[in-house]
Design a protein that fits this description.
The protein is an alpha+beta fold. The protein is 27% helix and 16% strand. The chain is elongated, with a radius of gyration of 16 Å. The two termini are 29 Å apart.
C-alpha cells in the first residue's frame, strides 16, 4: 500500500483534478478520499496496455 504524507495532500488533490477521466487499471485499488493506492493483484499480460517482450526482461537480468 502506498500512503502519502499529509504535507503533500493538497498537491496530490490538485494533480488528481487534472487526471479526471483517467482510467485506473482493475488490478490497482485507488482510494481518492484517503489518498491511498494498493496493488490488489499482479496484472496479467492482457491487462498491460502495451506490448512487453518478456524475453528481453529475462535476458537483461541474467
Amino acid at each position: 500500500e502506498i500512503t502519502f504524507k499529509p504535507k503533500i495532500h493538497t498537491l496530490l488533490r490538485d494533480n488528481m483534478e487534472s487526471m479526471v477521466g483517467h482510467i485506473v487499471p482493475d488490478w490497482i485499488d485507488f482510494n481518492p478520499g484517503e489518498l491511498t493506492i494498493r496493488v490488489a493483484a499482479l496484472p496479467t499480460s492482457d491487462q498491460i496496455p502495451f506490448d512487453v517482450n518478456t524475453n528481453l526482461i529475462v535476458e537483461f537480468y541474467r
